[in-house]
């Protein structure tokens, strides 16, 4: 997907939700879209500072928090990094990520069976799931 289309799509989703895609948020989204895999906040900051010398860590973290809440990006807790969501127009889905420990490649998959199983177990425990990210670590096909 080209960056302009990505930003247009994100803008439309934000408008529907009454949220604002500011320039800083848009810039961070564009930077994330240019990465194949996961990227850390400080790597994004270094890239952002090339075009905005005044960018600070808070700039990145606020933008990432917003983008994550909108479902445009996913935070990978186990490696403290972020990755683009490949379903930006339908970003209210359970997230399952396959993370290669060798090369860092991250693949987003979607298993309705896994989601149903987790929700059934949560329901049986009286637990209400508000957000779900499942992370699986291993080696990708290219690293075997």
From TrEMBL:
The lineage of its organism: Bacteria, Pseudomonadati, Pseudomonadota, Gammaproteobacteria, Alteromonadales. Its cofactor is Zn(2+). It is found in: Cytoplasm. It comes from the Bacteria. Belongs to the Fur family. The keyword rRNA-binding does not apply. Keywords: Cytoplasm, DNA-binding, Iron, Metal-binding, Repressor, Transcription, Transcription regulation, Zinc. Binds 1 zinc ion per subunit. Homodimer. Its main location: cytoplasm. GO terms for cellular component: cytosol. GO terms for molecular function: DNA-binding transcription factor activity; transcription cis-regulatory region binding; zinc ion binding. NCBIfam families: PRK11639.1 (NF008646). Zn(2+) binds at residues 100, 103, 140, 143. This is Ferric uptake regulation protein. The keyword Repressor applies. GO terms for biological process: negative regulation of DNA-templated transcription; regulation of secondary metabolite biosynthetic process.
